[in-house]
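Lay summary. Proteins are chains of building blocks that fold into shapes, and those shapes determine what they do. In this project we predict the shape from the chain. Here is one chain we studied, written as its sequence of building blocks.
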Amino acid sequence: MNGWTWTAAVVLGCGLAGALWGVTTGPLARRVAAQNLATAAICPGLLLLAQGYDRPSYIDLALVLAVLGPVGTLVFARLLADELTAAAPAAEYAGRCLAALGGGVVLAVCAAADPGRETLKILVTGALLIGGNLVVSRALSGGLREVPRG
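And here is the predicted shape, written in a compact code that computers can read:
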């Protein structure tokens, strides 16, 4: 095991333990926020594993997860809007922390990766991960209530 895989194990372990705790305990609002936490932990973990095992295919998985994870959370937030407005989770601070974690991992992996197509995919994954976490945390905190329902 090298430093990349140890860091991936820590990120995945802490992130998934927090997500499991959020899903198994608490109200509906915490469960939706925990689903976003799982996505935000797995994506940087996959980037770290891609660097640790020298497998660029893990970057593709992280890219797909960075696209689909926040979209899935936003769908849940939209479908459960009435229940979530009653007890909105304090997800804005957690979303910023997760975005910072994702940004730090992306910068570290980009610094170690060879310049080229792989680095571009890592940067796109990072942008999607950070943007998705910020939008989802704002939506879960009740920041997007002014959107009309159709």
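What the prediction tells us: The two ends are 51 Å apart (CA to CA).
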